[in-house]
Predict the structure of Bifunctional oligoribonuclease/PAP phosphatase NrnA.
Amino acid sequence: MTTTSTDPHDAAIKLSEAYRILLTCHRNPDGDAIGSELAIAELAEKSGVKAVIVNRDETPANLRMLPGADRVVVSNELPEDFPEKYDLVVTVECPQIERSGFEGLTQLPILNIDHHPDNPAYGVVNYLDDQSPAVGEMVWRLFGEVGVLPSPEAATNMFTALSTDTGDFRYSNATGRAFRAAAEMVDAGAQPPQVANWVHNNRSLASVRLLGESLRTLRIVCDGRLALITADQEAFQRAEAGPEDTEETVNIPRSIAGVEAVVYFKQWEPEVVRISLRARGSVDVRKVAASFGGGGHPNAAGCTVKGKLTEVEEMVAAAVAEALGGSV
Ligand SMILES: [Mn+2]
């Protein structure tokens, strides 16, 4: 029988009855995915259930210091002894089963734990709560339901999940519930200064160099409402940077007073321009990204456009300016 609930009751039973679980999450894992996986692995093991974490993509560098992060296996394929040696798949923060990047997970029953509103409940047990600020908060409740006391390390992992998914408790999902869960995690031994240090003070030198290169190109147009920055191939070379070094850069222009949207043009290979769009306020940059074949969220989206950098810049900037009701 399939069950779907915001309550961890059925998930707790399913997990406790398992012999050996395979844990996985969405591609390009974030703090919520990794922190939640590690905490569930501890919960399973404290309940006498073996747990193996297998992700399709690498753990981001700033999450590799999380307690137990070295147990995450990164692979293009499921383990050789799958499915024979397992009896349950636990997907974490994975709104569609395909987003795991693995084929064949459905050979076993799936416990689906997620807070994305569009999750279609593809598991046999679906612990889904779109009102939850982070899957880490849902895992916290799962500990309570199973009746297992989390170690300080597990509390730290769940706190990492919660604090990264709420933007350090600055986003609209930083609800009373988020703060209450955070308080309980800290009482259980989570270390917020340590988490902040791992997550934020762990940048590569190349990414800071590339930030400098990118900010030198800053143009403010559309009556001060649109900021444009670019990192071309020469900038990547001078900074000795790669695609992984571009992450935080786009948020800096967004912090300028009066700026409502930012476009970051990145070119690390000829004739292909990767574009990150950010917004605050009412403009929907997902629509702009979609018009160029991309996607995302209303205030954070992306697309890839082929062509000459200067021409792509002009075209996309004009589209965002139009969405802002202005012009470049
Ligand atoms: Mn999340």
About this structure: Residues 32 and 161 are 4 Å apart (CA to CA). The domain at 205-323 is CATH 3.10.310.30 (Diaminopimelate Epimerase; Chain A, domain 1). The chain has a mean pLDDT of 96. The longest strand covers residues 261-269.
